[in-house]
Amino acid sequence: MKIEMGTDFPAYFEAAYPEEFDLFSHFEVGAGIPSVLFAITTWKENGQPNVCLHAWSSFHGDPQGFFAVMGNLYMHTHTFANIKRDQVFGINFLPLCYYDALVKTIHHNEMETDELMVAGLHFEKARTIHAPMIEEAFLQMECTLKDIQDLSGARQAAMVIGEVVHLAVSDEYATGYAPRYGKDGFMLLVPAPQDLVTGKPQQSAIATVHIEKYD
Questions:
Q1: Which residues contact 76 (CB under 8 A, 6 or more apart)?
Q2: Which of 131, 152, 171, 183 has the fewest other C-beta atoms within 10 Å?
Q3: How far apart are CA 186 and CA 192, in angstroms?
Q4: C-alpha–C-alpha distance, residues 61 and 71, integer Å
């Protein structure tokens, strides 16, 4: 037996917070699919660094190009405006120990705020693009804007695609699996999986990767 749902909002679903289902599809919490967490970095129009903690993305390509496909980037944000204006952005992967620091940038993101300073993180100059990078990141990607698509047409969130033009990996993460996969490696967002029987909400979770098998 499977519990099924369609495009109509399930009337028995309870929101975890008042605006939850104004921001997210019920499929988001119905599926509860994890995705990697990272920090997007851009310059604000006034020259202050912007940091955006983000998930809902994939990374893939072919010999002709490698792409960061970032879903659900809200169109009212500094990050979206900065990417549209400058046509570039940085992607920074940090371990779980920096999660709380990155969350501070969600609550302190005014135009005049240096969001790296708010998080207690350090600026590193990008090699190929005009964007700030995060020194503490174990993996950095420098991206040029390839495409923006408002898939739903609601002018709320967009899919932003960047082409990766430069990659940097910290020495201690450059020899294979450890420590890239584990508590000191990639963070993943587990979006609050709704109880599909009762409709009760649950908390989101932050996970790391545990290798079970080699292929």
A1: none
A2: 171
A3: 19
A4: 16
| pLDDT mean over 142-165 | 98
Q: What angle do CA 57, 17, 119 make, to 5 degrees?
A: 55
Q: Among candidates 110, 106, 140, 107, which has minimal Cα distance to 122?
A: 140
Determine the Cα–Cα distance for residues 1 and 24; give it in Å rounded to an integer.
26
First-last CA distance in the chain: 32
pTM of the model: 0.97
Helical H runs in 40-98? 78-86
Q: Pick from 152, 144, 154: which is nearest to 66 by CA?
A: 144
Domains of the chain with CATH codes: 28-56+76-143+167-208 (2.30.110.10)
Between CA 185 and CA 169 the distance in angstroms is: 12
H or E element that contains 141? strand 139-149
Helix (H, G, I), strand (E, B) or coil at 194: coil
Q: Which of 80, 84, 43, 38 is nearest to 59 (CA)?
A: 38
DSSP single-letter state for residue 146: E
Are the beta carbons of 144 and 162 closer than 8 angstroms? yes
